[in-house]
Design brief:
single chain; mainly alpha; 434 Repressor (Amino-terminal Domain)
Length: about 100
């Protein structure tokens, strides 16, 4: 992901995957629903790291950094299949319950 908007869209996808409303997620994270809505739709110029980490924690994901601008290799495919991370600049990985 290369932009805050893409990050917000991915977070929205994770939230919907969990069948949560914006209000439910925002309440669990201690933020306003309107703040979450603006983040998900790319309506913010910046977003605090604590807020992002809390959202990901509640959704059962974590932030990972992987190298950018490299081609996807067979080793990457194998790592992804075994539960590793792909080649996106920032990726999320589901945590075991």
């Amino acid at each position: 992901m290369n932009s805050l908007q893409e990050l917000g869209q991915e977070l929205a996808r994770l939230r919907r995957e969990r069948r949560m409303t914006q209000q439910e997620l925002a309440t669990l994270c201690g933020m306003g629903q309107s703040t979450l809505a603006r983040f998900e739709t790319g309506g913010v110029a910046e977003f605090g790291s604590r807020k992002l980490l809390r959202l990901l924690e509640v959704l059962g994901h974590e932030l990972r950094f992987v190298p950018a601008n490299r081609s996807f290799t067979l080793d990457d495919a194998l790592a992804e299949r075994q539960g590793g991370v792909g080649t996106a600049a920032v990726a999320t990985k589901a945590r075991a319950p």
